Amino acid sequence: MASRGMGLDELPARIERWAAELGFSGTGIAGIDLSEDETRLFNWLADGRHGEMEYMARHGRKRTRPADLVPGTLNVISVRMDYWPGGGTRLAAETLADPTAGYVARYALGRDYHRLMRRRLQQLADRIGEHIGPFGYRAFVDSAPVLERALARDAGLGWIGKHTNLIDAKAGSWFFLGELYTDLPLPAARAPADHCGRCRACIDACPTGAIVGPHELDARRCIAYLTIEHPGSIPAELRPAVGNRVFGCDDCQLVCPWNRFAAAATEPDFAPRHRLDRSTLVELFSWDEADFERYTEGSAIRRLGYERWLRNVAVALGNAPTTGAVVESLRSRSGHPSALVREHVAWALERHRPH
Questions:
Q1: Smallest Cα–Cα separation from 307: which of 267, 349, 343?
Q2: What is the pairing mode between strands 245-247 and 103-104?
Q3: pTM > 0.90: yes or no
Q4: Would you please indicate which residues are annotated as catalytic (active-site) residues?
């Protein structure tokens, strides 16, 4: 272990202060015993609820055993950063209620958070090193097999709600998470109590019934999975419930009563770009591949790829009111080179055919 230039008992408070100065809205220290979470994860995988997210099983127990992923890890510094766009954008509920508009999950309206948060975590690690000397660490922002919500819970940053998202009683759930795996023997926080009580708003609000029970998510039915992670055809029986959601879904968070305490993001990079919070489906479907590359540069949407973008927007257009503009937009892609796109366009056009 590296030599320390400052007493470790003073370090947690300083880490919290430094993290706040770097723009993190919450910071805590977690232990690395995730044995109960490991059991739940492997049961979930055994039930096939991860769909085609093979990466969830690929790394074995490294996801649930931090010291297996980064040898020497003793504690994890967990951080969060707010991303709720606040009142400066078209309200999410208003967009969802407009079937001609395209709904993009609130986290993806601005710049991709991965690089920004990783850079800030590196700055946090540098500041720690300046005060205690060299130490072992690795920074992660959704970039490795990390059970980030469980670690954030154990770091005292919130409890895992019935929708499986992390909730903080004073800040809701609209935030990104990141971690510093460290070899520092720091005092771990205590996980807060679960305050969901009898509330089942998220379960009842899920458009596809993906929250099959409290704390149980079947990703194969989740719109976020279907429109982002799923590489192939969206099951026809679930397409009507997708509505106008073209990238992700926020319904379970939008109805959560704890989000009345959510703070708007202060990070300028998370502000909506390219009118993604107020574009029509016809506009979005008119993008050619160069447009897609231009408008999604630096965005989490880029990982989707143009083909799946058209797939998603075609489904949303199939759920839109029948108008000449909608039908003509779909017909313009009926001969698309991609069989995946053609399939979803054909389904959408059938929805607008008089019966």
A1: 343
A2: parallel
A3: yes
A4: 142
